[in-house]
Amino acid sequence: MKRSKFIILLVTISLFSIVILTLINSPSVMGIIKLQLSNKDIVEIAASSTSHSYMSKSTHSDRVITDLMGNKGFKLMDKQGSSYFFENKDGRVIVSKKNYAKKYTIWKIEPHK
């Protein structure tokens, strides 16, 4: 009886540890932590050679992405649903918007093909 309780406890602790480690390594969770600990309106949460992802609080929404892209030299050309089309002298990019956990927005910036 004691052995089976010990095994159940070990399995529970192991599963809990896996969940916690997964959450800590999640870019979205790290983005929330960065936003809460800083005075920034938007933070980068992931980057690759072809795209960048940012997170903002939903209350700031459109203003933060247009400001960010403006600082990078882009001008907003069009908006269709949750997609924003920006352009500069070097080309065009699409920024897609996705709500995350009701209070946050994830912005993904990709080159326009």
Textual characterization of the structure:
It contains three helices and six strands; from the N terminus they run ααββαββββ. With 113 residues, it is α+β, with helices and mostly antiparallel strands. A six-stranded antiparallel β-sheet has the order 1-2-6-5-4-3. The mean pLDDT is 85.
Order of helices and strands: HHEEHEEEE
Read across the widest sheet, the strand sequence of neighbours is 1-2-6-5-4-3
Radius of gyration: 19 Å
Number of helices: 3
- Assembly state: single chain
Computed structural class:
alpha+beta
- The 3D shape can be described as elongated
Share of residues in helices: 25-40%
Strand fraction band?
35-45%
Q: Gap between N and C termini, in Å? A: 63 Å
Give a quick account of the main beta sheet: strands, pairing sense, barrel closure: 6 strands, antiparallel
Query: Low-confidence stretches at least 5 residues in length (pLDDT < 50)?
Result: none
Mean pLDDT: 85
Secondary structure: number of strands: 6
Summarize the structure.
This protein is an alpha+beta fold.
Labels describing this entry:
113 residues; alpha+beta; six-stranded antiparallel beta sheet; 3 helices
Topology:
Elements: H1 2-24, H2 27-37, E1 42-47, E2 52-57, H3 61-71, E3 75-80, E4 83-88, E5 91-100, E6 104-111
Antiparallel strand pairs: 1-2, 2-6, 3-4, 4-5, 5-6
